[in-house]
Amino acid sequence: MFEEVSKILVVDDESINLELISAIFVDSPHIKVLTAKDGLEAIEILKIHTPDVIVLDIRMPRMNGIEVLNVLKSDPHTSHIPVVVLSGDDKERKNALKNGANDFIPKPFDAEELKLRVINNLQVKKYHDLIKNINDVLQKEVMKKTKELREALELAREAEYEMVVKLGMISEFRDEETGQHIRRISYYSKLLAHLAGLPESEQSVIFYASPLHDVGKVGIPDNILRKPGPLTHEEFEVMKLHTIIGAKILDTDPRFITLQAGKIIAEQHHEKWDGSGYPYGLKKEEIHIYARVVAVCDVFDAMTSDRVYRPAFTVDQAIDIMKKNIGTHFDPNLFDIFISNLDEFLKIKETFKD
């Protein structure tokens, strides 16, 4: 998976945990584990090494995990590094996410889950770095007004879209969804943005950013994400965190328009028109137009697709259910546009069927 050696920094005041986590990656030759017994030692290590992922305990002497997070996220040299927190306390984990953590692992931790979560965050980091590098190259090259450059820009844009789709699929595969779901959302969203009168530049942005709407599901445990029955209240509260996790993953320099738009969509696509959504209870135009567009498209595609907890609804059943949520869940204007042009959306559905 990783051609170059990836570095993981594990910070925990319990030496047994440092040994256990180091042992987990013994059979991974492309992953090097660095260890620190507390936050202060971790800060010193970061002056020499730049890890790709940090696994951080919350309760530590001298400098606790939240204090370390604040240092990491306030420094532009370390703010981009994914942080996976270790804690047995639900409030501590939520507080860590609010302070910039990207993921969490309950303590006592399961070795296989820890390894998979770290590898997932390494994948996200690699894709994030790759997209960033492509944008840097494009910005330097954009001054060259040549035919070769235009062809290269088009190829790079196509490559960026494929990478965004692959990034979105990291979480979708765990949710038993497919790459076709990601592509349908992309084309649905661009079409609805076009029909709603958004400028062509914004139609393009939403086309490339919408596949990232559920990337935060990479941080949700399998026992919740793939549960065949209804979620408990506590489980749903954890599920809702995928919006915040997604925004953390996609938080980057404002120059990277696709990732910035993806952050907005990931964070707000479960907000509702009447303010009853999550994570912030935004309502009406407080919700970004990108998120309102994706909300209509995502719900339609989810309802007309098979899920682990239910079979797909027919198109007519889905539309009937969605009509009952006009003005509560969905932007009424966008939903009217969607319904009035349903045949065009169904063509996309047929083109990218599972």
TrEMBL record:
- Pfam families per the UniProt record, alphabetical: HD_5 (PF13487), Response_reg (PF00072)
CDD domains in alphabetical order:
HDc
Q: What range(s) does the HD-GYP domain occupy?
A: 156-354
From what superkingdom does this record's organism come? Bacteria
* SUPFAM superfamilies, per database record: CheY-like, HD-domain/PDEase-like
Q: Which residues carry this modification: 4-aspartylphosphate?
A: D57
Keyword DNA repair assigned to the entry: answer is no
Does the entry feature the keyword Phosphoprotein, yes or no?
Answer: yes
Coiled coil ranges (UniProt) are 135-162
What PANTHER family does the record tag this protein with? CYCLIC DI-GMP PHOSPHODIESTERASE TM_0186, CYCLIC DI-GMP PHOSPHODIESTERASE TM_0186-RELATED
Name by which UniProt lists this protein: Response regulator
Q: Which organism is it from?
A: Thermodesulfovibrio yellowstonii (strain ATCC 51303 / DSM 11347 / YP87)
Where is the organism placed in the taxonomic lineage, from the top? Answer: Bacteria, Pseudomonadati, Nitrospirota, Thermodesulfovibrionia, Thermodesulfovibrionales
